[in-house]
Backbone:
């Protein structure tokens, strides 16, 4: 005698399967988006806020002459970069 086909349902009947299905649905990673398409063009001459770790003695050297030390560091970086 042939065995009747197993009956399948659309929803999981046991709580563990239901929980796994719900968890999988809410934890799927979103599609990766190319963020460069959302950036606006930089304004010419505008400064960019960045965070750098600089040795204390280097920072002291540039701060010795008082205000404007950030501009002096920028000038030194430009010279080092050949810009």
Residues:
């Amino acid at each position: 005698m042939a065995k009747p086909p197993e009956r399948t349902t659309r929803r999981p009947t046991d709580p563990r399967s239901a929980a796994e299905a719900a968890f999988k649905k809410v934890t799927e990673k979103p599609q990766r988006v190319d963020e460069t398409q959302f950036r606006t063009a930089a304004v010419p001459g505008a400064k960019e806020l960045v965070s750098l770790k600089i040795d204390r003695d280097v920072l002291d050297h540039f701060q010795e002459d008082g205000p404007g030390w950030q501009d002096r560091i920028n000038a030194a970086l430009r010279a080092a970069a050949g810009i």
About this structure: Helices lie at 15-26, 56-63, 69-81. The chain has a mean pLDDT of 81.
